[in-house]
Amino acid sequence: MKLNRLIAAAAVFAAIVSCSEAPSSAPAAEVAASGVCIANDNIRVTIGQDGSLVELVNLNTGQNYASGALLWRLYYDSKAEKEIEICGDVQSPAVTAEGNVITISYDSLKVRDYAVDMAMTLKVILEDDKVRFASELSNNEAHTVIRELHYPLVHGAVLPADHKLYTAEAGGRLYAEPQKVLSKLESSPYKKPEQFFRQKNVKYGAKVFMNCFALLGENQGLYFGSHDPSFQDTWHGLRAYKGNNGKFDCLEFGFFKYPHCFSGETWSCDANVVAPYSGTWHVASRIYRTWVNTWWDHRESPQWLREMKSWHRVIFKHQYGEYLFKYPDLYGRVDQAGQSVGCNTVFLFGWWAEGMDHGNPDYSPDESQGGDAGLKEAIARYQANGNNLILYYNGKLIDRESRFYLSGMGSKVCRHDNTGSEILERYKFTGKGTWLGEYDQRTFAVATMMDPQWNEVLFALQDRAYGLGAKSVFFDQLGYIESESTNWDTSREFPIPDIHGILKRSQCLKLLRDRYADIDPDFALGAEGTVDALAQYCDYTHGYPANDGPERFVNFFRYTFPEIIFTDRGQRDDENVAYHVNYTLLDGQRNDIEIYRCRNIIDDTPVYQAYLAEANKIKEEYKDCLLLGRYNDVFGFTCSDNEIDARSFLSEDGKKMVIVAANQFCPQARTAKINVPGYRFAGSMTLGNAKVKAGGSKVTLGQYDLAALLYVTD
Q1: pLDDT above 70 coverage of the chain, percent
Q2: Cα separation, 238 vs 559, whole angstroms
Q3: Phi and psi angles of residue 573, each rounded to the nearest 5 degrees, phi first
Q4: DSSP 8-state code for residue 672
């Protein structure tokens, strides 16, 4: 594979010059013997006659991100071999242009030393602020299936020194050195051909919040979005290839899709867009949100949930049968501990007879505690004090020792792999000995989300939670998709996986949400994980997984989706308390109180207890902004010190603004000027040793100190 195409770039120089001189008020196409380019006021794209990407230019800054390298590759299977690679840099396409569209056509494709009867048409479509890359495949090669298409690819990407890599993993991560992070080994090279390239594994929906990524500079950047309303499996192509110097410094960015196109079939996709933009990263966020608005179907969450500051996540009975708490503790010690930190919500695990991660989906009444009647009474007594209870279920796991599975239903509704075998997951908790962790385990089959019989199971669980008096039903593992437990169809010449797991899971969540929308709109629906297409049908999500360290960058997601209520998942016990709790204030998250993996409650962690109590006082005092208002990131104010993290929150009526500022990383105290045009200072609250100058014009923050400053309009 050729790593760069400098010769091709030189060959189309005349075409580039010609195009750059064309009027830019409207899309224009210029064709030369060596290539084609199209341009508008913002972007110029040049495709070589060999189908290479020669130019991807931000005309407002002059930055060309392309290097004249390959634009695509695909993989197909035959009966004898899997993942046969076809690369774009060894083909002979026809390249034409009309208006704002470049068409790249391949009547057949070359692989190794022969041709295969596969045709492909690629379109490069210039829109106002982005470039759309469309594709159509036709497979006429007998006994083959086209598995994978990598398109578009910005191979050998030319990046300015200030560009950082943003991914939507775990709410968002920002990598200061893209080459360094992409060149790292993610797994043993024994299993992957990492002598050729290194790859960062990022798959939309698999704990990846959004179907986009970006290269972010201070005043410009390059946005990649798969604007795909079918929500099919999409891999964010983040690779570093070995360059001529032997180092993995040839960066490649793009999207991988999975056609599974059999002989005699066609497949098409026009979802993938790339946008060289000018401005801060907020421009990229708005591009994605503009597309999201074409399908977004989120309702406003119930008021009690919007006002929720934290929840207490507690296991009452564990997997191996130990009672950690009993029902009366709900309105006794558990409630008291929650009240001590301003928390009025319990997220109840392990409330059924079998115990946590055991027996699903039977969830047998615990007759030793009075069965469902006993639980209902405990919930009523807890909620009588103005509290709220969230009832837990797992939304996909079927215990192979449950009555449901042993009846034969489990095998009927569960997923199967490429051999037709049941897909299994195993969970095991340990006690104080070694037996459980070393030898024992619970084994679960994985349900198919849109199987009508499984839907009926979930409906019954939802109804039971409502009947018990809970304020919300929560389904574990339904807010994201798994990387490796896709359901397979084995009825065809080649087995094919279901690539629409996100879509089907979203359909399932929509059914659950809509069932109670009219009956009781205050009865909330929650799920584990936060993926935009799934979160639209949830009133809240349990964020997953923890996101720590200097790469943490939740800002992009929060700015794009300010209406989503989601919890943190980083704070446990008494370690690094201020660091994690501060971020829940900075990012507008709710606190997930999870003590010793839900085995205890917050009165057993005095450091966390004391700090969270003060943090929740801030949330309560300024709830119009921090809980009920809008996350507004860095807009509406200025902060003179970039070492300080500062965010703004705006009330619904726009009359109040709260600035949350914290020193999360610098060991030395920092002093910063705060300016909020159009607002006057009205008060402040602090954590740690933070100091706010009279009038709110300055804050002084030592490491892990935090200040919340209230500003109001006259």
Answers
A1: 95
A2: 24
A3: 65, -145
A4: E
Helix (H) / strand (E) element for 619: namely helix 606-621
pLDDT score recorded for residue 34: 66
**CATH code of the domain containing 615:** 3.20.20.80
Extract the tokens encoding 517. Answer: 């929308």
Q: Mean pLDDT across the stretch 300-314?
A: 98
**Domain containing 566: what range?**
303-395+452-621
pLDDT at 22 over 60: no
Question: Which of 292, 322, 337 is the last residue before a domain boundary?
Answer: 292
Q: Is 427 a member of any domain?
A: no
Please answer whether residues 209 and 172 qualify as being in contact, where contact means their C-beta atoms are separated by less than 8 angstroms: yes
* Whether 150 and 234 share a structural domain: yes
Do 390 and 277 belong to one domain? no
Mean pLDDT across the stretch 80-109? 96
Positive or negative: CA dihedral 624, 626, 630, 634: positive
Sign of the four-CA dihedral 709, 289, 498, 111? negative
Q: Residue 21: what pLDDT?
A: 37
Domain check: are 280 and 322 in the same one?
A: no
Q: Which residues pair with 64 in a beta bridge?
A: 57
Express each pLDDT in 440-467 by its tens digit: 889 999 999 999 999 999 999 999 999 9
- Our count of domains for the chain comes to 3
Residue 28 placed within a domain:
yes
CATH of the domain at 59: 2.70.98
Residue-level pLDDT at 18:
38
State whether 201 and 347 are in the same domain: no
Burial 23-61 (b: 16+ CB within 10 A, else e): ebeebbbbbbebbbbbbbebbbbbbbbbbbbbbbbbbee
What pLDDT is stored for residue 35 in this prediction? 86
User: Does 562 sit behind a cis peptide bond, omega within 30 degrees of 0 on the bond before it?
Assistant: no
Judgement on whether residues 505 and 634 belong to the same structural domain of the protein: no
Strand ranges, E, within 412-569 = 424-427, 442-446, 472-476, 488-489, 496-497, 524-528, 540-542
Q: How many CB atoms lie within 10 A of CB 484?
A: 8
Segment 320-363, tens digit of pLDDT: 999 999 999 999 999 999 999 999 999 999 999 999 999 999 99
Return mean pLDDT, the chain: 93
**Do 65 and 154 fall into the same domain?**
yes
Q: How far apart are the C-alpha atoms of 660 and 631, rounded to whole Å?
A: 11
Percent of the chain topping pLDDT 90: 88
438 falls within a domain = no
Query: What are the φ and ψ backbone dihedral angles of 242, each rounded to 5 degrees?
Result: -75, 125
Q: Whole-angstrom Cα distance, residue 581 to residue 619?
A: 12
How does 251-278 read in b/e, with b if 16+ C-beta sit within 10 Å? bbbbbbbbbbbbbeeebebebbbbbbbb
- What is the C-alpha separation between 375 and 380, in angstroms, rounded? 9
| 577 and 635 co-located in one domain | no
Q: What is the CATH number of the domain that holds 697?
A: 2.60.40.1180
Query: Is 207 inside any structural domain?
Result: yes
- C-alpha distances in angstroms, 503 versus 212, 449, 480, 487, 536? 17, 10, 11, 14, 12
CA separation for the pair 123, 372 (Å, rounded)? 60
Q: What pLDDT, on the 0 to 100 scale, is given for residue 714?
A: 81
Domain boundary residue among 260, 292, 324?
292
d(CA 431, CA 427): 13
Q: Cα separation of 591 and 583, whole Å?
A: 10
268 and 337 both lie in a single domain: no
Rounded to whole angstroms, the Cα distance separating 556 from 238 reads 19
